[in-house]
Amino acid sequence: MPVVLAILIAVALGARGFLGSDDGGATDAGGAAASTEVRVVTPPPPVPAAGAAPEAIRRKPPPEHEGEKSNPEEREPYVQVRPGREAVLRDDPGGQVVGRVEDRTKFGSPTVLSVAQVRNRWLGVPTPQLPNGKLGWVRADPGTLRGGYTDVRVVVDLSSHEARIIKGSDVIRRWTVTVGAPDSPTPTGRFAVTDLFKGDLNPAYGCCAVALTATQPDLPSGWQGGDRIAFHGTDGALGVDASNGCIRSADRDVRAMLGLVPLGAPVLIRR
Length: 271
Known about the structure:
Elements: H1 2-14, E1 76-81, E2 86-90, E3 97-102, E4 112-114, E5 117-119, E6 122-125, E7 136-139, E8 145-150, E9 152-157, E10 162-167, E11 170-176, E12 179-180, E13 189-198, E14 208-215, E15 228-234, E16 241-243, E17 247-250, H2 251-260, E18 266-270
Parallel strand pairs: 9-18, 12-16, 15-17
Antiparallel strand pairs: 1-4, 1-8, 2-3, 5-6, 6-7, 9-10, 10-11, 13-14, 13-18, 14-15
């Protein structure tokens, strides 16, 4: 499936004049014809131990390079909103407008969208602007979006309280997690990484956090912490059902995620 998606994205973003922007132009901010190639990428370098801690880690998506060695079957496509541009989000291909996707997330990170489906000229992406399990659709406009791949994904098994980072076909890290309590279960489905945070967080969130497109529809009464699901650190018990939906992990494991998992990486949460 990733190969099929990749080919379709390459065709969609690579056919100049076939897929223009919503206003009829397929140009970059300077008016020149946009680059149309799908670029091969690798996961980002490790996050430094020190730095501008209070804000979202505002770094570019994984750098491109020649000679990608991973199995193409294991690569997952993404698109990034180009700087200064904005994508229109619809509920179906060519359907009703449900929102807009700017080049930065609400937390300040570059906007990188995991591509879960392709229908002709449209890309289906997980988004926190729609309910869990419902894809948003953006037009495959090379003037607005830049294509790429990642060979990294995250899998969470709720029943076994285990998370894994997979690179290509290899599990490169696994650890025990605490997940949602029975009254506030962690949602299941395919999601994606939107933001990475390090330092100066609420002590309840430990050292760092990895925000997802997933949201919590079953918020506890009086909860003021927002509805976004994230991996975050904890010094509490692990391997139990006790959170408000977030995926609690030891600080060392979330810190490792910051160095291994890029923006836009797919996250599969299952029972």
